Description:
The protein has helices spanning 4-18, 135-138, 152-155, 162-167, 177-186, 200-221, 229-235, 268-271, and strands at 22-28, 49-55, 58-63, 66-71, 76-81, 96-103, 110-116, 124-128, 254-258, 263-267. The protein is of the alpha+beta class.
Amino acid sequence: MPEMPEVDALVAFLRERAVGAVVAEIELASISVLKTFDPPVTAYSGLQVTDVQRHGKFVDLEVDGLHLVIHLAKAGWLRWADHLSDKRLKLGNGPLAMRVRLDAGDGPHVGFDLTEAGTRKGLAVYAVRDPQDVPGVAALGPDPLAEGFELAPLLEGRRMQVKRLLRDQKVVAGIGNAYSDEILHAAKMSPFAIAADLDAEEVERLSAAIDTVLREALAEAHGKPASELKDSKRGRMRVHGRTGEACPVCGDTVREVVFADSSLQYCATCQTGGKPLKDRSTSKFLK
Length: 287
């Protein structure tokens, strides 16, 4: 799933290419991807893209006062093309969900496709007048790299595992499964530590890890074309997606806990005092 660093880099990539261009047409290949009906997507034709912004993991194209807000979900992606096919999209069940044709002054030849792999569809597009009209945007917690961000108040009284807290977009915006694994590894903290029980030193360590991991990821992602962002993300992970490999810090084997629809990776030596989280469903998780 694209997370804040990749989405931020994608927004910068789009801003450079799309701002100033005119929307020629928005074509749908999947009716279900569009979650709104007013304004209709036909209202965007002939309007100019004036900005591209990020809200958490949402991409927001501002088009002369209207907004096209995109959430890529788990398996969605944006594929930019300097030369789009003239062939119009047809409704279907394939990976291609939407096409946005842009005219940068020489005809509607550039733009992007929204695609989604797999059968579980979560890709979502909202045509709105204000990004706050998108429920997911309106509910977002603070951005962890915003000026004045403080982690400690977000932990107070929260009897939830810190891994879950980091992924909760209503608490902290932009962090998902992959970077929460990386942050907790950098902080040397169990994913199942209870947020409200962290002492001052642990809170400071976690806060520093959030800042360091995300800023390093942003620096690595920015400047890369959209087509390279996914592979770039995979390549810089230390524990996430590395089950069975050696931890780059201590050399222990990276372990995994599997849930119904996701998994996490961690290093027992670095994060849980050497004790592996053995039972994936019924054990008492380490704190």
